[in-house]
Amino acid sequence: xxxxNIPTNEEMExxxxxxxxxxxxxxxxxxxxxxxxxxxxxxxxxEATKLKMCHITMTLTSAxxxxxEVIVDLVRSIHFRIEFLxxxxxxLVFDPPWSQKNMSDEAKLEMGLL
Length: 114
Known about the structure:
By secondary structure, this protein is of the alpha+beta class.
């Protein structure tokens, strides 16, 4: 019988970040991770199931973003695309507020800010 190779918490965080980089704000040509909307990704092991749970703290470019529900739902749905990830909790915060300083250099270049 072969042993199941469940990723470590750190490996799962990297897998989640890969998925976050596939989600785009419909109003900008940059993914939400490079846009700086993700403040924290923390994964842990559910001791009962041995599967992973991830907690993501994120913001939006604006508290009145018309696509906020769509973006947050896409983040929550990441667990459907990663094996051994059973749940994603999303904390949507607006403090500290998002600013262009949060963006990666690649995102700034893509948007013509560098």
